[in-house]
Give the backbone structure.
Amino acid sequence: MSQQKTILSGIQPTGKLHFGRYFGAVENWKRLQEEYDCLYMVVNYHAMTMPFTAKKLAENSWELVFNLLACGIKPENIFIQSLVPEHTELGWILGCFTSYGQLSRMTQFKDKSSRNDEMGDQGFISSGLLTYPSLQAADILIYKATLVPVGKDQEQHLELTRNIAQRFNNFAGKEYFELPESLYTKVPKVMSTADPMRKMSASLGDKHNIDVFADEKVIRKQIRSAVTDTGEQVAGVMSPGVTNLFKLLEASGRQEAYTSLLQDYEQGSLRYSDLKEEVATGLVDISTGIRERLAELKSDRKAVKNQIKASSFEIRKRAQETIKEVKDLCGLVNVRF
Ligand code: TRP
């Protein structure tokens, strides 16, 4: 019997949805839905590992759900982590199969714990930040997902997930968990238009990212002020700023404009203002479609929320199956229905 592979990925309910995140992750997720059994989760438990407030966490979680739906992620594929509390239960169990030394050496832990220090929370570093990767392993393994579409920054987490699964399998004396692999689809790495040497990111500040939901005027203005040449270019090498604009043009699906402007560039006749105009139009077109869908979804918030609660409930049944088996394998006294 050929079974469809299960894909799982998670996204933090922090920051806004900018074009870097859209082209780099969400658009790819949308495409994968055509081919695989896909589960996409808003990881609100993980968001508690950095300073947070209850109000913001709730608002951001729903905001992200609405945004994902507007971008074309199917409602039956979306769920909220806290609506499947089995994740934390498996997270605890897998924590007992995770090496403390390995956790403390994770680059994300080292980065974020020093950032937490800077954020002035009196140097408070929660143990949740340390055990974050065991919960992420649980997110993946609880659905026996085999493919995890993530960026290169998550490589270490996936490696650790495989270690944990292996250790559990050794303990159980059978190949209970399949070892998941990261799925690196070729996605464009979009750079900041204000500083094309750095990745587009919300944490760098407003001018370093372009909000998918921004007004047409704002998008056009941001693209118009994009850095192109800095005067330090090597002859014959396309500057990072111009490269990034071409990448955005291609990502936005304007293949014809892309080809013809690239020809202009090669002939030395490209006007940056023309390139920027085309890029802006490409982004505005995408943004307009998404905003229209978002407005529609927001006209009946309650219905959308109920739909996501229902999909989370369905997905939870799959998680409960695994938890039941894992508890049996561990000798944990189990509830039987
Ligand atoms: N750590 C991931 C990130 O910061 C988010 C995440 C949590 C995740 N659980 C996951 C990603 C499971 C993939 C699979 O981007």
